[in-house]
Amino acid sequence: MTTPSLSVASELGRVLVVKKLQLATAESCTGGLIASALCAADDTPSFYGSGFITYTDDAKITMLGVSRDTIDTFTAVSEQTVREMAAGAKQRSGADVSLAVSGYAGPDGGEDGTPAGTVWFAWQLADDEIHTSVKRFDGDSESVLAQATSYAMAALILLLAEYV
């Protein structure tokens, strides 16, 4: 049986192959679920080269070049942080396109009052334009992570549909 994430990953892979683009991922709360779905799709090496799992602040700083000041000022779950995660993944991997995810899957939210289920996303395209989105998903941690995984890839498909 095909999971929703695998179906979306397969479609994303098809779009990336047609557009001759390589993708890199930077995941925090999803902990590699996006990479796993992409690796289960057909012809993965033709569109996906690398992924970074940066669950802690230190990993985001060391592996992706996220600024300590950004995290201290805005938190690890913020638009500013996912923008830097996406830029770091694209730059450090040499990929054409990147996507980044950071959020609070639950059961708790952030110390700043951000509710559980809040997830920030960023996608950097080959022209270096960065798009961001924040979503609030309902359900337990597993459900939030599944929804975030599918959304991250589906939104990139839509962005790439408009990308020449």
Automatic annotation (TrEMBL):
Q: Which residues form the CinA C-terminal domain?
A: 7-157
Any Pfam family the entry gives:
CinA
Q: Which InterPro entries match?
A: CinA-like_C, CinA_C
Write the protein's name.
Competence protein ComA
Q: Which organism is it from?
A: Trabulsiella odontotermitis
Upper lineage is: Bacteria, Pseudomonadati, Pseudomonadota, Gammaproteobacteria, Enterobacterales
